[in-house]
Amino acid sequence: MERPAEVVGILEVDRLPTRADFEVTLGRAYSAMGQSIKAAAALRAVFYGMPMAADADEAEKELAELAGRVPPASVAERKSRAELLAKGRRYSDAATEYRSLIGDATQQDRPALEVALAGALRLGGRTREAKQALDALSDATGEVAAQKLYNLGEIARAADDDGGFQGYLAQLRQVGPTSPWLEQSLFSSANKYLVNKDYPKAEAGYRELAQRFPAGSHGSYAHWKSAWLLWRMGQGEEARREFEQQIVLFPDSPETPAALYWRGRAAEEDNEPGKARAYYEKLNQLYQSYYYGQLARQRMETLTAPAVTAELVLASLHMPPSRSYLTLNDPPADSLRVQKAGLLANGALLDLALRELHAAALEEGGNWEVAEMARLCQDAGRYDRALDVVKHEVPRYFSAQLSDLPPPYWQALFPRPYWADLKAYAAQNDLDPYLVAALVRQESAFNPSAISHANAVGLMQVLPSTGRLVAKDLKIRHFNPAMLTIPATNLRMGTKYFKGMVNQFGAVEYALAAYNAGSDRVLDWQGSGKYRDIEEFVESIPFTETREYVQAIQRNANVYRQLYGAL
User: Fold this and answer.
1) Predicted local distance difference test score (pLDDT) of residue 321
2) Cα dist. 525→96, 383, 522, 542, 543 in Å?
3) What CATH number has the domain spanning 419-564?
4) How far, in Å, are 292, 422, 486, 549 from residue 441 at the CA level?
5) Averaged pLDDT in 10-residue chunks for the chain of 567 residues
6) What is residue 139's predicted lDDT score, i.e. its pLDDT?
């Protein structure tokens, strides 16, 4: 490396937030200067602290060059790498790291590493090895014993050995009644019973989870699922009580809007329109732009009775504190950092440009950073990055009135790139263009180069196999998957395919669920019982991802209509 001291001088000034590529370059520079300890510190920050980063392999090579000149990595660093690999679903690599750690561990630390190794093996599909490792772990106590039982239970559950699973779960209740491994086991169990349509066992599992771990990561969700399954199983009186308990016990939870809406629906069924309106008005007040806020407004259009103002359940709900974003400053034109950011963005160095803007905002002050970051991202065609920038700044934007945020924020949150093509192809297929825009936002955040883990491509995340079928239908000759990265082509194919699903199922909500989870699953869910209406079907979708997907697209389409009005 030429002039490493200058590289160090430049990168050290702009080192935070930590980035893998910067740290590797810094490590190389320090190594070239003969400062091995500092070089190793930078490179280890990547290899051990960011093992999922693309630069981790380069960090490993550079560290190998320093072998013998610096102390070996600590056990804590190696354990962190193993845990992060497992969290990133690189289970085979995590297992390798755990094996190497076990050989160097103390007798006291070895059981925890052995059970972690078994967990990585199980999650990596190496069930037999995992079972052998767990059976060999005879001296486990405390949380290690709980983790062992959890993994054995998951192996039994995956093999559809319900009796074996229940046996391990019973032991886990005894060994770790307050353990997070019991919490996770109950959650996994209830979810499986739900997917398998064993609603009584699912409800019992969710109820036990909510009662044992009300403040846990699944407490509110489990309470809500228990309440909802009571409703679906016809236990209306108990469900009404649990809907109200959901609101009182978890007033700030993501499930509160659903509880408000369905308690209102229950009041309508009880011929209590005033009580129903009270729930709907509170829902609309707190969650106007949410999926359930839109549904509440629709229900209120049919109600003539005034709201019951003394509904005590609603007293625990208050408007969240708001921050004013009404006034934006212009970025300081004479700031060298702002000017540098513009040059970097023009040179396709968007990440560096955003870092310069952040540094400028810290130096200059003023309320302009987020809007200017979003603008640079949009000008670079990175509408997905612009959306992320504003989401990070305003995480509760769906609770905001349109007048609460300045137009640049809303335009970044709900962009309309490729609008002419989107609108034209939506019209060709008799689709609402705002619904299509919401679908694209959910699928790719308007990144035409997006490729999913399932190899779906482009704006509407069309699979190459689907593209071939649609191309034949549209008489597009010489189709190849690369064509799906062309926005106009992707929109043409995606809208055609989605329209076919609307025609097949007869309702947008069914079509959206099929677009996410597949037609066969939607047909299965439709046959799982009678539903009062499409809203009850959506709430009953057992896959959280699919249920939230349908609700989010409906919600976002409504926000698009509010923002941009009539076509």
Assistant:
1) 59
2) 41, 35, 5, 8, 10
3) 1.10.530.10
4) 19, 12, 16, 11
5) 75 78 89 91 94 93 91 92 96 95 88 95 96 89 95 95 95 96 96 95 98 97 98 96 96 95 97 95 90 95 86 79 67 89 90 89 88 94 96 86 89 97 98 98 97 95 96 93 96 97 96 97 93 96 96 96 83
6) 80
Vertex 11, ends 6 and 15: CA angle to 5°? 160
What does the alpha-carbon distance between residue 276 and residue 305 come to, in Å, rounded to a whole number? 9
Secondary structure of 7-38 in HEC code, one letter for each residue: HHHHHHHCCCCCCHHHHHHHHHHHHHCCCHHH
Residue 67, strand partner residues: 70
Give DSSP secondary structure letters for 314-337: GGG--PPP----S--PPP-TT-HH
Q: Which of 397, 359, 354, 360 is nearest to 374 (CA)?
A: 354
Distance CA 251, CA 397 (A): 18
Token couple for 107 = 């007798």
How big is the chain by its Cα radius of gyration, in Å? 27
* Residue in this structure with the two tokens 């559950």, named with its chain if needed: 157
Give domain limits for the chain: 4-73, 336-413, 419-564
Q: How far apart are CA 415 and CA 433, in angstroms?
A: 13
Residues 332 and 127: their CA atoms lie apart, in Å, by: 60
- Identify the sign of the CA torsion 433, 434, 440, 446: positive
160: part of which helix (H) or strand (E)? none
The catalytic site residues sit at 443
- Look up the pTM and report it: 0.88
DSSP lists the bridge partners of residue 70 as 67
Contact in structure between 282 and 312 (CB atoms under 8 Å): no
Confidence (pLDDT) at 404:
84
Residue 94: the pLDDT is 96
Q: Which two tokens stand for residue 67?
A: 């072998």
